[in-house]
Amino acid sequence: MIKLNKSELQEMYDQIMKLIKRKPAGFFTIKKMRKVMGLCFYGPKGGSTYDENVILVDYRREFVGTFLHELIHYLYPDQNETWVLYAEKRLLNFCSTFQIASFLKIISSKLYKSEMEREACVFAKQNKTKQPRKIKKQAQN
Ligand SMILES: [Zn+2]
Question: Sheet harboring 28-30: ordered strands across?
Fold first, then answer.
């Protein structure tokens, strides 16, 4: 297993920060999940119902660690679960409270935007299904 030193952990943190700044809000999703704390989808393969890259995190669990874990999966797709778990623990211990706060600041604004977009989608869908009924009623009168 490849061990991570301090400069590699700093590099990993920088990569994660770059990634979360670059990705659209829809990439980040919070969801209640029964069997897992988090999931990372790379694309439409593997029976995923999501057609785009997405990271799902159950907000009721260990939020920061789970989010970092899924982002490490995304950044290092060739690494196995054991290594990702190791990297997650190392990174959590390495990061300063300021680094974690900076991470949370970006993640929370992305999640807020992501949820706003979802709400807008639900609202648009509700309006679409309501409109034909209205037209029908007007036609009867
Ligand atoms: Zn994992």
Answer: 28-30, 54-57, 38-41
Are β-strands 38-41 and 54-57 bridged in parallel, bridged antiparallel, or unpaired? antiparallel
Measure 60 CA to ligand 1 centroid, in angstroms. 17
User: How far does residue 57's CA lie from ligand 1's centre (Å)?
Assistant: 11
Q: What share of the chain is helix, strand, coil (3-state, %, to 5)?
A: 65, 10, 30
The pLDDT, as a whole number, for residue 2 is 85
Which stretch of DSSP H or E encloses residue 108?
helix 97-140
Write down the pTM of the prediction: 0.79
**C-alpha distances in angstroms, 53 versus 23, 26, 135?**
10, 9, 38
